Amino acid sequence: MTSPAAERVNLLGLPRAELESFVAERHGAKPFRARQLMKWIYRRGASGFDEMTDLARDFRAQLGESARISVPQIVTCQVSADGTRKWMLRMDEAQGIETVFIPEPDRGTLCISSQVGCAMDCSFCATAQQGFNRNLGVAEIVGQVWLARRELAAAAAAGGPAAQVTNIVFMGMGEPLANLRNVVPAMRIFLDDLGYDLSRRRVTLSTSGLVPQIYRLAEECNVALAVSLHAPTDELRDQLVPINRKHPIAELLAACWHYIERQNGRSVTFEYVMLDGVNDRPEQARQLARLLRGRPAKLNLIPFNPFPGTRYRRSPDHAILRFRDILNEMGVIATIRRTRGDDIDAACGQLAGRVEDRVLVRLGSKLGGAASAAGAVR
Ligand code: SAH
After folding, report:
1. Measured in angstroms, how far is the CA atom of residue 127 from the centroid of ligand 1?
2. Is 284 near ligand 1, meaning CB less than 6 Å away?
């Protein structure tokens, strides 16, 4: 008889070193067994041991007793007119998270969540309205990629467009640096050649600006860094991104330049949500340019995605274009993120997930943010 699931170790989300220890300690198996398992789980998307035909039958039976491969359950899947897909995944009875896939001609970006809800309380973000519930575990983070790959393959097999996950961005729900303990092992699996084998430029962590954790990340994992700046002065940023009161802009930028130097990276992508009459004036573009010019920095301007109850409005197109032009003229590379998936509430800052009594209850907010997130990694 198989042991109850809770007593079996979920192999999804064990980075290579941990999987090697698991097979050695529990089964006296050699490290190459762990490598075989990784290929099955990540490359081939296996969810059971029986299909792992190059493992001895005995070993497969033993694994069935000691281990499992468990992925989150899909509650809903929506497909946007522009091909963007959004999945709501059940985390427990009451809570859900959202994962968004954004197809483009030359890439496929998966926007994943790192927490259920978020504690950062940014005033323009839908996720903030639901407050913080809990951190996602490693398997719940990696499981979003595992599921998206399976679903995309199934859609292609059913005659839909062939689409692959080529980039992963932590721009869904949650603050990834507040959950480094689980986010770092997940990123190791994304980068591992036996995992998803992505280059470090194709995995992007986006943060609202947890300065001490940026220094920690610099020592632990080498991925692309995106930072939600949103304002050129502390006075304004204090209101939009409250963590700024603890870690003001000068400290944040110093941490960013350190990260680039330590990781030998190219540049930090700064995200800047365009809010009508709040942070979109020409003078603010000039202040921003003075902060960033001559630095390894790119700016990604995100048209604000509204959600019910918000006090903000999206900047008009002419203001966004003028803002970009001023930055470019002053020598800072700035691009405008195309809004994707807003018809299914999958755009940047519109993500909110809650599952109750098996029905999805809208919190009156959208997962606003994910779709625009993808553009940041260009
Ligand atoms: N917590 C992380 C990652 C999640 S949000 C962070 O703050 O970076 C991904 C991006 O979407 C962030 O830059 C965020 O500021 C932006 N965003 C949030 N709400 C938005 C909205 N309503 N419209 C447009 N962008 C939004």
Report:
1. 9
2. no
Ligand 1 atom showing the smallest separation from residue 170 Cα: 3
CB 354 within 8 A of CB 365: no
For residue 302 and ligand 1, the question of a CB distance below 6 A is answered with yes
Beta-strand runs (E) in 333-373: 333-336, 347-349, 355-356, 359-360, 368-369
Tokens 């006090």 identify what position?
311
Q: Which two tokens stand for residue 214?
A: 């940026």
Q: Residues 6 or more apart from 24 whose CB is under 8 A from it?
A: 30, 31
Q: Which atom of ligand 1 is nearest to the CA of 120?
A: 1
pLDDT of residue 349: 67
- Ligand 1 pocket, mutate which of 102, 132, 273 (most atoms under 8 A from CB): 273
> Rounded to whole angstroms, what are the CA distances from 211 to 208, 224, 250, 308?
9, 16, 10, 31
d(CA 376, CA 366): 20
- Please give the domain boundaries of the chain with CATH numbers for all domains: 6-68 (1.10.150.530), 73-377 (3.20.20.70)
Average pLDDT of the residues in 49-70: 95
Catalytic entry in 20, 98, 175, 271: 98
Q: Above 70 in pLDDT, residue 326?
A: yes
- Give the pLDDT confidence score for residue 346 in this predicted structure: 73
Q: What is the pLDDT of residues 175-230, one digit of tens each?
A: 999 999 999 999 999 999 999 999 999 999 999 999 999 999 999 999 999 999 99
256 belongs to the catalytic site: no
Residue 303 phi/psi, 5-degree rounding, is -60, 130
In terms of Cα–Cα distance, which of 203, 200, 334 is closest to 270? 334
Active site annotation includes 118: no
Q: What is the pLDDT of residue 342?
A: 78
Contact indicator for 112, 99 with CB cutoff of 8 Å: yes
Question: What pLDDT was estimated at residue 365?
Answer: 34
The residue whose CA is least distant from atom 15 of ligand 1 is 228
**Residue 259, ligand 1, Cβ within 6 A:** no
Collapsing DSSP to helix, strand or coil, 191 comes out as helix
